[in-house]
Structure formats: C-alpha cells, structure tokens
Fold each of these.
Amino acid sequence: MSAATLLREAALAALRADPLLSARLNGVYDSVPPGAQPPFTYLPDILSVDWGTKTARGRELRLGVMVEAPEAKALPDLADAAEAAILALPPDLPGWRIASCVYLRSLASDEGKQRRRLIEFRVRMLEG
C-alpha cells in the first residue's frame, strides 16, 4: 500500500479515536462531506514527493486537516485536538515508518456562517 494511503487511514483513525473530537464533532470524513452539518473535520488531498535514499524508498507528504465549526469560539479547541491527534500518530505503519511528523502551518478563514481552520503537517516516511 502507498505511504499516502496508509497515512490517510492512520490520520482518520487517530482523529476518530480522539475523545474530544468524537464527542464534539458530527463526523470525521475522508473528503469534503456533501450536506454535512458543522462541526466536522475532513482530510483534503495529500501531496506526495520523493524522499528516498540510495537504499530505501521514502516519501515526504503534506497532510492537511480541515476543521469546520459553526462558531468561532469552538474552533481553537477542535483544531488543537486535531493537531495533537496527528502529532501522536504511531511511527510504525504496515510496510512504512514515520521518520518525522511536524506541524507546518495553520490557516483560519471565515466565510459567511462557516469558520474553518486548515492545519498542515509535513510527514516524512521510509519504506520498510
């Protein structure tokens, strides 16, 4: 299985297992959920580039987590919980190992009644 697919599955499982997120979100989705009511979170597409060595295949992945909430005051706690869940991912995935997982940036936006925060991570993985 590809590093991006494994990372996506692990990220979804970690977000769904988080007690605060599972109690306060209407759902954790693999992509933009049509018709879902906030608060919810989903994973945008993952960017993958080569990060291999002479002896091992590797990938550098950009993982995003989008958190949407109907009110601004709920967003910080939800975003903090989502960030913590991703940073706590287990290093060993089937056939791959997470060498590093770091927070890169966060972008908050208000559009009408929607409050959003995109949290972006850089995840470096080696096969084996």
Note: Residues 3-17 form the longest helix (15 residues).
Amino acid sequence: MIRILALGAALALATPTLAQSTGDDAADDAAFNNPNVMTVRNVTRTEMAHGLQIFDAGGKPVGTVERMSGNDVIVTSGTREITVPITDFFAYNQHGKDYFATRTPKAVLEAQSSTSGTKPLALR
C-alpha cells in the first residue's frame, strides 16, 4: 500500500510543464499581431452548409458546398461536383472574416473528379 501511495505521489510531482507562452513576451505579441499570421482550425459538419464558398489552400476558389454525403462534402465547381472528405477542410480567419478551404489544390480536386466517374453537371 505504501508503494502505491509513493508511486502516486511521484507521478503527481512529475507532471510536465507545458511550454506555452503567457503572452508576456514582446516577441510573441509582435508575432501574433503580424497581419500575415492567421488562426487555422478544423471545421465541423454543421459549418459545411449549402452555398458556403470553398477555397483551396492557395486561396483559389474551388466552388460552393452542395451537400454532405456521409463524411464527405460535395462541392460544386459550377461545371461538376467534387467529393472531398470533411477531414480535408480547415477554416481560417483573415481580416476579421472566416474562410473555409480544402488542403488539396483545386487542380488536383478537379483531376480526381474527372477520373472518379463523377459526371459533369450538364450530363445529369
């Protein structure tokens, strides 16, 4: 019993110290106030609403959200539908506005949609 208590006390004292800034450092403040720094986060299913504009990581417009299909988001580019896993999306805030983007470049998404059997919208 004494060994268990001693082990518990040793573990409690050995908690790691997190290496996070408290914001008191002038260099940290300068970095976070830099206009080129963006906050990036994962998205939720509820955010992927019909008509939401989607960009690629380079800032090029990909299309708009058409609908959800399981864990995939169906994005319409205007000429075809592109199926993208929800895990590929992220959101970022720039100049006070939220943007939603996919990690995959637009050209790769379009190439995947043309080889995956997805028909152009005009043929549906």
Note: The CA atoms of residues 32 and 72 lie 33 Å apart.
